[in-house]
Amino acid sequence: MGNFTLGRYLPLDSPVHKMDPRAKIIAMLVMLIAVFIPAGWIGYGVIFVVAASTILISKLSFGFIWKSMKPMLMMLFFLLIINAFVMKTGKPLVALGSFVIYS
Predict the structure, then answer these.
(1) pLDDT tens digit sequence for 40-61
(2) Is the pLDDT of residue 7 over 90?
(3) What distance in Å separates the CA atoms of residue 63 and residue 102, rounded to the nearest whole number?
(4) Closest by alpha carbon to 57, among 18, 5, 15, 89?
(5) Is residue 3 one of the residues assigned to a domain?
(6) Number of domains comprising the chain
(7) Rounded to the nearest 10 degrees, how much is the dihedral formed by the CA atoms of 2, 3, 6, 11?
């Protein structure tokens, strides 16, 4: 269990670590809800910028983030593929038989 870093607390001195825990929980819930709202690529870009900004402000190292995310990469790849076939907003990019991938 020593190598498992996902969800592990690091006592760093950053604005994110100093935030009220209730505010962090509410912010996390807002992010979770935002991910499931069909906002298209622009919406996902905004979510990415907010998440990346939070990581930068929290002073977490890239190595720590990579080590935390490595176990989830297969699931993220699977969800990306599923999302490409399920999301039906924008113009059609590619048609593979009856499956259509939208922009």
Answers:
(1) 788 889 999 999 999 899 888 8
(2) no
(3) 34
(4) 15
(5) no
(6) 1
(7) 60
Q: Residue 6 domain-assigned?
A: no
**How far apart, in whole angstroms, are the C-alpha atoms of residue 56 and residue 78?**
27
Q: What is the chain's length?
A: 103
Residue type at position 17:
H
- What are the structure tokens assigned to 96, written together? 């593979």
Rounded to the nearest 10 degrees, what angle do helices 40-57 and 21-36 cross at? 160
Q: Is residue 10 part of a domain?
A: no
Q: Does residue 34 carry a pLDDT above 80?
A: yes
Q: For residue 86, what are the domain limits? A: 15-102
Distance (Å, whole) CA 47 – CA 36? 11
